Amino acid sequence: MTQIVDIDQFEAGLSGCVIRMRPRPSDAHPFFADATVAALVADAMAHTKPVHLSGLSGTGKTHFLGSLLEVAENLDLLCAALDAPRWPQLRVHRIPVGVYETPNEMFYLPRVENFTSVEEPQPVLRALMAAEEDAAALHVVWLEELGRGITPAVQSSLLGLVGEQVIHEPRGRVFELPNVAFVCDSNYAANTAGQFVLYDLDQAVARRWLRRITMVPLAPEHEVAVLKEIMPEATDTQVRQVVALAVGIRRKQSEGALRSIVPPTIDAELECLRGMCRGLADVRTNVFTTLLGHCDPERDTDEAETVYAEAFGVQVKTTTPAGEAVGIL
After folding, report:
1. Distance, CA of 15 to CA of 12 (rounded, Å)
2. Which CATH architecture has domain 4-215?
3. pLDDT in tens, 239-283
4. DSSP notation for 60-87
5. Bigger pLDDT: 216 vs 101
6. Interior CA angle at 43 toward 41 and 220, to 5°?
7. How far apart are CA 26 and CA 145, in angstroms?
8. How far is 58 from 187, CA to CA, in rounded Å?
9. Eight-class DSSP state of 200
10. Is 94 helix (H, G, I), strand (E, B) or coil?
11. Fewer Cβ within 10 Å of end Cβ, the chain: N or C?
12. What single-letter DSSP state applies at residue 210?
């Protein structure tokens, strides 16, 4: 039986289960994290080791990091269970690093004040200054969407930041910061066809991230357990059909098909289930306006119909040669 463990019941060495994390005020439901991934990330952060979380879109990287870092209790409870350092305070600095075009912009940007150009400290520099002023707290610098248009020049500037306890900013100021942990999320690990990132990750930069974790969707049996907990009104059959559909979509996408379909997420699966429970439309319409929504009719229709038929055990009529070839008449 799949085990969902509340985060305050988590114990070191517990694997093969899912942790129910404390939700943020804005969350519709808690985040359910793979226990091993949560433990590895929390332990690295507590020891201020750089963490690179990568993977396909829709695997929950941002939601996981948000839950872990924006609810300080989550990180503290994991650290307590892991016998890792427990910091008295947690400060998080979320920085969309993809907006920078040059290295200097990460630290300073000019602005006009009283007809004079002055350099205004930017989020990276402000994070370092905050960490210096508040040495008792753990300051986590979260570089968001590292793979979205990060130029080689900006990547090279990370060499003097990530994993460094002594940091030199462009104007000569020196920071000694044993209380700063860097974390980033990206699609680099999934960039097999160049569809997710504009620039390759420089190997020198990649080496700076000492904990490198590829996020994957929860195992099907874990997804079933999570969906049942969040939406108890759904039947067992409905839940298993939706999970089977999500698994089928991911399989097709790994084979290069269904590129027009957004990768499945727990929230999209929940919306599909909600529609099925509410009965606002027939099952097929509900599926093709949620998990299979925006399917390209010229390219992906046959594959979408196939994966729908497999998950829901129905026959789908099609007159295309591809449809006849896969036997879904």
Report:
1. 9
2. 3-Layer(aba) Sandwich (3.40)
3. 999 999 999 999 999 999 999 999 999 999 999 999 999 998 999
4. SHHHHHHHHHHSHHHHHHHHHHHT----
5. 216
6. 40
7. 21
8. 10
9. P
10. strand
11. N
12. S
